Amino acid sequence: MTKIISHPKIYSLLSLGVSDTIKIGKAIAKHLNKGDIVCLFGNLGAGKTVLVKGIAEGLGIKRNEIISPTFVLIHEYKRDIPLYHFDLYRLGNPKDILGLGYEEYFFNDGITVIEWAKRLKYLLPGEFLKIELLIKTDSERLFKLRAFGRHYQELLKNIYENIRH
What we know:
The chain has helices at residues 18-29, 48-58, 102-106, 150-164, and strands at 3-6, 10-15, 37-42, 74-77, 83-87, 111-115, 128-135, 141-148. By secondary structure, the protein is of the alpha/beta class. The protein has one domain (3-164): P-loop containing nucleotide triphosphate hydrolases (Rossmann fold), CATH 3.40.50.300.
């Protein structure tokens, strides 16, 4: 069962395993809209791709369609609202993403989820939902959610209320 720990500006969720992480992702997806950007931060094995699978499932995409796009940087999943899944693990320098037209994804008609968002550095958008994933034990993960921008503050409040109930 997901445990919720709140803080005035950061909401924390404790996932007790993969199924909890999927549920959290699905709950987040219920509140995402066109143009939303979710940036994932965390070490290797923290559950970023599992969380993306949950978000995708919440958007009507089959979980098994989601793979880590480590070697291509971006996977597009076309639906009513497209999902753009970035994995920047192999990004050496933020300048390497400039040629991909990343801004067309970030500020377009879809939902963008970015694994290894810290590698964007100065290219991070000004407003986004930040989710930091921390490894607690082999199966437990602590998610720290923080909003950057007014829209994302409201989004985060709605996500928290949904998960809490």
